[in-house]
Hints:
- The protein is an alpha+beta fold.
- The protein has one domain.
- The chain is built from 2 helices and 11 strands; from the N terminus they run H-E-E-E-E-E-E-E-E-E-H-E-E.
- Strands 1, 2, 3, 4, 5, 6, 7, 8, 9, 10 and 11 form an 11-stranded mixed β-sheet that branches.
- The longest helix is centred in the N-terminal third of the chain and has 29 residues.
- The protein starts with a helix and ends with a strand.
Amino acid sequence: MEATRKLGLVFCMAILVVTFGSPVKADEHDKLTILTFSAPVELPGNVVLSAGTYVFKILDIPSTRNVVEILNQEQTQICATILTIPAERLRQTDKTIVEFYQPGPSAPSALKSWFYPGNTQGQEFVYPRARAAELTNTAIRSVTVSSSNLTSSHEQP
């Protein structure tokens, strides 16, 4: 009788761990990040996000981890789906890092890369060849912004 009761307790605990343990790992897997921009931001493919809040996450595609999906704040509309290439940093930080190209005073900043907290590997956004050349030739400088300057959060369901 005692053994049956212990087995039932272990079974209930296992169900609780499986039920409530999975969602936390999902955020690490898809790197869901909420970013708020105070000015328009250019993305590859002639996409410009207006100032506002957006959800960035890695799509779960079996053959690659280099596709970023950008959604509106409510996650009801896809704003862009963008192919990226791996980017590297020497040090990891505990904050989101977003890097921009600054093409000039009249053009919006162009998103260069995004690093999830605690990772040295991130996502570099791939622009068409002609636009990439323009960005690197006319950019005033590349600006790195951490989540201390940029509103960002990592949702935990």
